[in-house]
Specification:
The complex is a heterodimer of chains A (431) and B (155). Chain A folds into 3 domains: 211 residues, NADH-ubiquinone oxidoreductase 51kDa subunit (Rossmann fold, 3-Layer(aba) Sandwich), CATH 3.40.50; 92 residues, Ubiquitin-like (UB roll) (Roll), CATH 3.10.20; 96 residues, de novo design (two linked rop proteins). In chain A, 43% of the residues lie in helices and 12% in strands. Chain A is built from 18 helices and 9 strands. Chain A has a 5-stranded mixed β-sheet with strand order 6-5-9-7-8, sandwiched between helices. The longest helix of chain A is centred in the last third of the chain and has 18 residues. Helix content of chain B is 47%, strand content 12%. The chains are: A alpha/beta (431), B alpha+beta (155). Chains A and B meet through helix 5, strand 5, strand 9 and helix 13 of A and helix 2, helix 4 and helix 5 of B.
Chain lengths: 431, 155
């Protein structure tokens, strides 16, 4: 499907994106592809690479926004071998599809990104952990990895040096929790993918107790352009002082042109919706959006002009998450939308810790009753308390799960009360 | 191919999901016997495999149809018409969510966001994505699969 956009903004990750086909290794190399790894192998030490990534202020694009360079630096100098690189292509955050688009656009960008990451961590084995829904992308990656190997970019003694690196594609059996770092490592080792609280951190003891650096697809794809053009260039791509680089914004819901757009970090929400996503359909007005997947808080009308970068949203008590923007209009019932999100979390809770296993279905059931005209006034306080309790769960899943509920109670409490007082969903009644 | 990979692996359990997928592909689903067979291949206890088989969305401990339909019910697809499409599919196939048609062709299951929100409402059939869907498109897809099945099934 054509998702091209006429924009004056620089296209870095989508530089080789074609409307109807995957960029080949030749397309990629014509545009400077694999020059970064040549530069790295022939002129830079692994510490130099870490420094450049750190200076670029590249923050993890998987949702947690952890500085990528800092993560690399946590691999100790005397850490044992072999070391692993894991590329997180699990992308199961509802609303998020940017990595799918990126993998279908330019697979060699990811391969080169993994090479750079591997060089700087002194890792020799890379694994791409991919969700089963992306079987098509998994096949593309397997094919392109073999092509890169033939071309001498993967395997032993890459580009004549002493750096060796291989990549395997690992298909998941499919569960949301596998996107969480420690759960993903358990999944890769054939265990039930329960999360595990650090320490030890995966960069110290990850796969098979060996140092493992895990990064999101988009994060890794930022690395080749950073090496080619420098840290300062990358930082300057952003529109905000606090941001760095470009960002893949995936936008869906009530917009005319849902799709994935590469825009400078810090572009305003209003611009993304109106200019890039073709505005909202006739008769639709912006009511709220989830800025970065299901586990973020709603941005209401008051935030319509918000610069969309990690720091700006954080300062406002929000999270950019995966920058998967889901737009809701005035005709959408926020209780029903939140119920849908909670149903997702209740289904996907791994069930290992009690607060999350018991709390998510409890909240879902309260929302279901409210939505279906069986809400009681005391439910509002119970919901607020439950949201607080869920912050005590074992991993970050539950605090993420309650984010939309907290947002609902903060910005749309009147809608919740309207359901309770009218004993029906006001949006259904007005149909 | 897979047995070679297992032999070459320092940690065979890393291949357990692949092995279960392959065994499932062969038998149609993971029966107790199939699970034991898969467990022996990777040197793990069958209960450890059951922990995984009952956990992952794409592993089936009960028989499924030749075509497994996963209809996305997450928030964007829900907003774009999941419910009427679900009702349409149920009516068309004469089954409820979670059931298989009596001829063994189709199983209908809900699934979490499949990452096709730009083409919502969307579904997967045997891991292939379809979207944006309408009831007419669903009818066409089902028809195509029915004739594909008729052609490839020995009578």
């Amino acid at each position: 499907m054509a998702e091209t956009t006429n924009t004056a903004y620089p296209q870095v990750l989508f530089a080789n994106r074609k409307p109807d086909r995957i960029a080949t290794i030749d397309d990629y190399r014509k545009n400077g592809g694999y020059e970064a790894i040549q530069k790295v192998v022939s002129t830079l030490s692994h510490k130099d690479v870490q420094k450049i990534i750190l200076d670029s202020n590249l923050l993890g694009r998987g949702g947690a926004a952890f500085p990528a360079g800092l993560k690399l630096q946590t691999v100790a100098d005397d850490a044992p071998f072999p070391r692993y690189i894991v590329c997180n292509a699990d992308e199961m955050e509802p609303g998020t599809f940017k990595d799918r688009v990126l993998l279908h656009a330019d697979p060699h960008l990811l391969i080169e990104g993994m090479l750079i990451e591997a060089y700087s961590a002194k890792a020799e084995k890379g694994i791409i952990f991919i969700r089963p829904e992306y079987e098509n992308a998994a096949r593309i990656l397997e094919r392109e990895v073999a092509i890169a190997e033939k071309a001498g970019f993967l395997g032993k003694n890459i580009l004549g040096g002493d750096f060796s690196f291989t990549i395997d594609v690992h298909r998941s059996g499919g569960r949301y929790i596998c996107g969480e770092v420690t759960a993903q490592l358990n999944a890769l080792m054939g265990k039930r993918p329960n999360p595990k609280q650090p320490p030890p951190y995966p960069t110290e003891k990850g796969l098979w107790d060996l140092p493992t650096v895990l990064q999101n697809v988009e994060t890794l794809c930022c690395m080749p352009p950073i090496i080619r053009n420098g840290a300062e260039w990358f930082r300057n791509l952003a529109l905000t002082e606090s941001g760095a680089g470009t960002k893949l914004y995936g936008i869906s819901g009530r917009v005319n042109k849902p799709g994935c757009y590469e825009l400078p970090m810090g572009v305003r929400l209003s611009e993304i919706i109106e200019k890039h996503a073709g505005g909202m359909p006739e008769g639709s007005e912006f009511k709220a959006c989830l800025p970065g997947g299901a586990s973020t808080r709603y941005l209401s009308r008051a935030h319509y002009d918000m610069p969309m970068d990690f720091e700006t949203l954080k300062a406002a008590g929000h999270r950019l998450g995966t920058a998967a923007i889901m737009v809701f209009d005035q005709k959408t019932c926020m209780v029903a939308a939140t119920l849908n999100l909670m149903a997702f979390f209740a289904r996907e809770s791994c069930g290992w810790c009690t607060p999350c296993r018991e709390g998510t279905p409890y909240i879902r059931d309260l929302l279901w009753r409210i939505e279906n005209g069986r809400g009681e006034p005391e439910f509002v306080d119970i919901l607020k308390k439950q949201c607080k309790y869920l912050w005590n769960a074992y991993c970050a899943f539950a605090p993420g799960a309650v984010s939309p509920v907290e947002g609902l109670l903060a910005d749309f409490e009147d809608e919740v009360w309207a359901h309770i007082h009218q004993k029906t969903c006001p949006f259904k009644a007005s149909d | 191919m897979l047995s070679q990979q297992i032999q070459a692996s320092k940690h065979p359990p890393e291949l357990v999901v692949d092995v279960m997928m392959a065994v499932q592909e062969h038998y149609g689903y993971l029966s107790d016997e199939a699970l034991e067979e898969a467990a022996a291949m990777v040197g793990m206890a069958p209960t450890k495999l059951d922990e995984l088989a009952t956990f992952y969305t794409f592993l089936y401990r009960e028989p499924v149809g030749r075509y497994v339909i996963h209809l996305c019910d997450s928030v964007i697809c829900w907003m774009d018409g999941y419910e009427p499409l679900r009702d349409h599919l149920c009516k068309k196939l004469g089954i409820q969510m979670g059931e298989t048609t009596p001829d063994g062709l189709f199983t209908l299951l809900p699934v979490c966001c499949i990452g096709y929100c730009d083409r919502s409402p969307a579904m997967l059939i045997n891991k292939k994505a379809y979207g944006p869907l309408t009831s007419e498109k669903i009818d066409e897809i089902l028809e195509t699969l029915r004739s594909e099945a008729a052609e490839t099934t020995p009578s």
